[in-house]
Structures are given as structure tokens and as C-alpha cells.
Design brief:
The chain has about 100 residues and is mostly helical. Helix content is about 20%, strand content about 0%. The two termini are about 25 Å apart.
Length: about 100
């Protein structure tokens, strides 16, 4: 099975039949390929613009120790003035 998914959405995967009629054991594995946000896209909508400035202001001062998060347009792990300037420098870019 292969499926395209989006960030911040819940997906349920059903294995087996319904009503408890199917029983047994097995293995289920999930693999993910994540396409990270592009530089300047702090709200992860694949276009750099006004919304990225707003999400940076909403998350001002946040620190993400192991990854980038909302508002972190330059992906350095913290939301600060550098994210605003990064967004302005990449304004209008459509992310691939």
C-alpha cells in the first residue's frame, strides 16, 4: 500500500476484516519519506508569503531543539528576526 499524506492530518489504517472474524498474527510496518519545508516557508503551505510572517510572529521565541517547527523559516531551530528576513528574501517562492 502506498498513499500520499499531508501534515497535521489524521489517517487510520485498518488491517484485517471487520467484526473480529479474521484473526491471526503478522507484522505491519510504516515507512515515511518526508519532504521538508523549503527555506522561507515557515507555515508549511509550500508558498512563501504573508502567512509565513504571521506564523513567525505567533511563535516568536520558540526553540525547536531537534528540528524546525512553525515559524522557523530558516530552519535553524529557533524563531527570531532571522526568520522574518529569510521570509522576505524568499518572498513569492513556490516550494517543490
Amino acid at each position: 500500500m502506498q498513499a500520499s499524506v499531508q501534515q497535521n492530518r489524521l489517517y487510520l489504517v485498518r488491517i484485517g476484516g471487520h467484526g473480529g472474524a479474521d484473526t491471526g498474527t503478522g507484522t505491519f510496518s510504516v515507512g515515511m519519506i518526508c519532504q521538508g519545508p523549503c527555506i522561507g516557508d515557515g507555515n508549511f503551505v509550500s508558498v512563501v508569503g504573508y502567512g509565513d510572517i504571521l506564523v513567525a510572529l505567533e511563535n516568536w521565541g520558540m526553540q525547536y531543539p531537534s528540528h524546525s517547527g512553525p515559524g522557523d523559516s530558516n530552519q535553524d531551530g529557533m524563531v527570531d528576526f532571522d526568520d522574518i528576513t529569510t521570509t522576505l528574501a524568499t518572498w513569492g517562492v513556490a516550494c517543490q
